[in-house]
Amino acid sequence: MVTAITRAIPESFVDAIRSDPRPINLSKARRQHGAYVKALAQVVDEVVELDADEAHPDCVFVEDTAVVAKGHALIARLGHPTRHGEGAPVRHALQARGLTLHEMDAPATLDGGDVLRVGDTIYVGRSRRTNGEGVAAVARVFGPLGFAVVPMVVDGLHLKSVCSSPVDDVVLVAPDTVSPARFSAKHVIVVPEAEAHGANAVGCGATVIVAGGCPTLRAALEELGLRVIEVGTSEVRKADGALTCCSIFV
Question: Is there a contact between 234 and 240 (Cβ–Cβ < 8 Å)?
């Protein structure tokens, strides 16, 4: 059984941490998020939507709060101080589903958006939000479970801002970012510059959820026999977010 944990968008999302100066359209953001949740419901067995927290404008980006694999969850110590406190409801949801929980201590920082699993390899970006101690915490928890943990230097917010692995044997990479040769997946697709935002996608089984406006990427995925669902991401992108940011698969 596959569960996707998501979190609702608060009114305060308009004040989310971001580099994009354009104002966020809250009602549109909620419509897009609703479409995302409906898409998830088509590809997983259960979708759990946690309540929004007005004290944490970025709480919709639930992925950052935990890293999950093989029945274990590392509860992240988020790299931006204003986001500390987002993890409690996620911790409870994971614990309720029987996962073994692991905690992190200062000075380690880690955002789940910096953690990319490709088969039995976990790539961890050292970024603005994840430090060396955070990488070491991932290795401490998931190394003994049979994963190779590979650090990667990230010039940007998160590793998964520029790459993702939505389904087995498929990795998507934005052009002129990380080297495609770093990944051992059967299919490594470099998306066109005009569709760079499409490098972040999420999926399960033979279905991939991609950002709208990526026809070349959609065609490449369909050529692999995958079903593609498009959802709008314009408003979460204004808050430096993307599709993987908005769910944790358990």
Answer: no
- Which residues constitute the domain of residue 125? 3-249
Bridge partner list, 68: 73
pLDDT reading at 156 higher than 90: no
**Is the pTM above the cut of 0.90?**
yes
Where in 85-234 does DSSP place strands (E)? 100-102, 115-118, 121-126, 148-153, 163-164, 170-173, 187-190, 202-204, 207-211, 227-231
DSSP-derived letter for residue 98 is T
**Number of domains the chain contains:** 1
Beta strand pairing status for 100-102 and 72-75? parallel
Beta sheet of 207-211, edge-to-edge order: 202-204, 207-211, 227-231
Of 108, 111, 68, the closest CA to residue 91 belongs to 68
CB 1 within 8 A of CB 43: no
User: What CATH number is attached to the domain comprising 210?
Assistant: 3.75.10.10
Distances (CA, A) of 88 to 52, 56, 164, 222: 12, 12, 26, 38
Q: Which pLDDT does position 99 carry in this prediction? A: 98
Residues marked as catalytic: 158, 245
Task: State the Cα–Cα distance between residues 249 and 163, nearest whole angstrom.
Answer: 17
